[in-house]
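LOG
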Amino acid sequence: MREVSILGVGQTPVREHWELSLRQLAVEAGRAAMADAGVDHLDAIYVSNMNSDRLGGQRHLGALVADYLGQRGVEAVKLEAACGSAGSAMRQGLLAVASGQIDAALVIGVEKLTESPGRETTAALATAADADFEVEHGITFVGLNALIMRRYMHEFGYSHRDFAPFALTAHANAAGNPNALYRYAINERDYERGREVADPIRLYDASPIGDGAAALLLVPTERAPGAVRVVGSASATDTLAVHDREDLLRLKAGRTVGRSRLSPGWRRPGGHRPVRVARRLQHHGRAVAGSVRLCAARPGRAPGAGRRHRAWWAHSHLDHGRPEGARPSCRRDRPLPVGRGHPATARPGRRAPDRRRAHGHDPEHRRQRGDYRHPHPTGSVGPDGS
């Protein structure tokens, strides 16, 4: 198997793209990645998307995007794995290039969620859950995660306020990200005053939906020695229905992935590689880190840290190569969808459009007026958040 590198990247801002269609978003990100890489011909295109058929009436995105990118005739497919669609497409692109069958693979994640009524978007996102045993009974994705968060708080003795550092850090990072949807910081008082979405999840615990696309171009490392090398990749699954899981707070898929590719060779000598945990709700980051064994499953207290910091500090299980007494590496210090916006399968983050201002939806404009509110978070039922 060949080593693989990322030669080019492209992305669109996350916003309510009323002026752009799903195909236009995908093509814009794809062209940006190709231009960044200096490549004009592809061998394969992998498009990730979850909701195009239900919300946009469009399937067969692979051929559609290849056509509008001027790459007719190349291998092109759509991949779907709910919110993990982009990661799955990335892995397929990696395997294709590593195998030697493909020399230039374009991976695109694209989603358009804001043009449909809130109830339709919520119903579409809920199809990622078990249709017969969960969705049939009316529960939403946020509702399922509220049950998990409540159990997490009960198991480890946390209050809702203990999760504030996740949201505060995410918004602080989004404030400096030109592609983020909500480019402003919040404080602990803002976090606590957020309206309830699904107890105990409140406004700033869940990420708002958005439209956007991101793309990257993969090539053999031997052809681009100066590019970013991909050092590891793995994929695994758990039970789909939450009630079938052995442990509600441990993600078996994460543990499997950690054991398969996150090996000692993946870490830096004398320390760790930074890890970005992409998740839609606050408690996911802590659960994923514990399951992959980046941190202890039961959160601990960092030396000198107050109780509030326990939600993001933990004793590290990555002891190989770490100097004795070195600080744990599990921190929540990367921009995540809470401030950036969550276009489901299109990960990189974004900013708000000018047309939102005309309709009173621009975040900065509404904050100046003193009546700012997030739009409905991912998974809430309807714009009123009920």
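LOG (cont.) second protein
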Amino acid sequence: MSKKILRVVVCAQHLPDSYSGGRYHAWIMGEALAAAGHDVTVWTNCRPFVTRDFKTFEHHGRIKLCIDHESGPPNTPDPCDVLIIVPHGRHDFRMYGRALLYAHRTGCRVALLNFESPNWFNAYSPEPRPVSQWDHWVMVSRYSDLILSSTREGQSWAEQFYIEAPPSTVHRFCYPAINTPVADAVPEGPRQKRVVCMTRFFKGHLHKGAMDLLLVLPELRGYELHLIVNPNNLRHGCLDPLEAESEARGVTLVLHTRLTDREKFSLLRSAQGMLFLSHFEGYGYPPVEALYCGAPCVSYELPVLREVSGDALATAPKNDGPRLSKQVRAMLEQRVPIDVSERIAHVASFDRYAHELDVMFQELVEESRHPAAIAALDAQTREAMLGEIGTDSPAGLRSGMVRRFVDWSRQRLADTLGSWGR
């Protein structure tokens, strides 16, 4: 039996001048599906900055860009098989509403890419967030055939949180790959007295642990500490405490923004190790990239990082400064670096990722049940969505309008679930 070539639309907002781990994940998913032989359209708001790192991929040309969140995805008479909705932190009902209406019109399957759920985030983060920030994720889940998490740990928390999804919704997880084709093309360099850290200096992102670097600066005397950061997350004065303490401790602070993947992997292949002091992660790209490049990594002991990276990580409990410092010293004192790249190769593999996504989405479209967007999006719900999308507000919906629609939609779903149970 020949494999079906799927028509896949990835609905995701991107940034024109930088990217986050979630945006990177969204793009590499499209690349993996294209590599598996499928026709991929990325429906987005701008030309993604991240595309520059994938232009040499063999199947990169199979990805079509539809840059227009206002008018919706391509109005093609050909059916769409799978719509992957990639959520973000901003309340933008236009994106989600149009995506769901498109799914209903084409009769496609809907997959929600779940980076993290609030029950999981708030269980670990030192700075909890209101559950309402995930309202639109919940709304999409009500019409999703698949909720796809990045890890087994993430799926477990998602199954507890997305209780408003239809009974037919399936939960799966798949470890996203790193850019192994580019990483493999970067030669191994001599290890220098440098340590790399990918983090964020931004209000609302204390869980990234940037200021925890102050705990280990005494161990880094005589070293370069290379910080890879998103320039959009830098605010005036945010680096002052770290810069002052680094100078006092004899540590050379080096700041990197907008590195290409090749530049990033070159830095990792020349570093003696990585520090990754995040208090919460939905996946943990940086340790995977560091380990794949042969750079040992010290992190906090998080179940999700242990699941993904296994015993290749050196860890310390959160809030245990002495243990953390001991692990950093051990990493720097290694005369012959341990071979950690083989331990992470399977998780990092782009080919593995493309194959697993291919199998997963082939199984999804072959299911006999009606797509969730067809079954749950009745005429009244669609009419409400169209009314909200047609608002004159240039920024989408005001928060009060969003709340009214979410509350109304929840009631509609409760009525639907009640009728299913009768």
